[in-house]
Specification:
The protein is about 40% helix and about 20% strand. By secondary structure, the protein is α/β, with parallel strands linked by helices. The chain has a five-stranded parallel sheet, with helices on both faces. It has a two-stranded antiparallel ribbon with strand order 3-4. The protein binds flavin mononucleotide (FMN). The site of flavin mononucleotide has 20 residues, from helix 1, helix 2 and strand 6. It comes from Methanobrevibacter millerae.
């Protein structure tokens, strides 16, 4: 069972989660970069609008070949209660047919993961992927160590090693 973790991270929290998952699940990992400038207050506002409208963006790598993988994790921060433009763009460029998929999202402490997870699920299911699990983490006021510990807790609680056969 070959596992791949694909993630986008703006300020690093989702990246910490993805790297912790990759280490414990012996999974390959690919970080998607958004080539649009997302820095600063004004761009944060525009980013929320882009996410809300599900606007596409320029990403690197521009697509990912999933052929070799049985299980794919997709991770994104929540922006405006939606997945990020980078992940929305990527999903439309991949062939999800026959793939098992696990979704994860990070958010502020008052956020809800439901709309983001639901939207990811909708888009990937439409393209033939099968969502087998999903989880989320509230990252506000958490140190990198907290995020690592919380992710390790999720790996245990959801028995994620079972899906990857490790
Ligand atoms: C443009 C933007 C919009 C956001 N919108 C939301 C939101 O609607 N709900 C929420 O709970 N958190 C929101 N957040 C907070 C992020 O989801 C949270 O900080 C996340 O952990 C960041 O992950 P990262 O460090 O991997 O980029 C937003 C952050 C940004 C930059």
């Amino acid at each position: 069972m070959k596992t791949l973790i694909i993630y986008y991270s703006g300020s690093g929290s989702t990246k910490i989660m993805a790297r912790t998952l990759s280490m414990h699940l012996k999974a390959d990992i690919i970080g998607i970069k958004d080539l649009k400038n997302r820095e600063g207050f004004a761009n944060r506002l525009l980013s929320s609008i882009d996410a809300f409208r599900e606007s596409k963006t320029e990403i690197s790598p521009s697509k990912v070949d999933l052929t070799d993988y049985d299980l794919i994790y997709v991770g994104t921060p929540t922006w405006a209660n939606k997945p990020t433009p980078a992940i929305i763009t990527l999903i439309d460029r991949c062939n999800w047919k026959g793939k098992d998929v696990i979704l994860f999202t990070t958010m502020n402490k008052d956020g809800s993961d439901e709309p983001t997870i639901e939207r990811l699920e909708e888009k990937i299911s439409m393209r033939g992927g099968r969502i087998v699990e999903s989880f989320s983490l509230k990252t506000m006021d958490k140190s990198p160590e907290d995020i690592i510990n919380d992710t390790e807790g999720i790996i245990q609680t959801l028995v994620l090693k079972m899906y990857s056969g490790v």
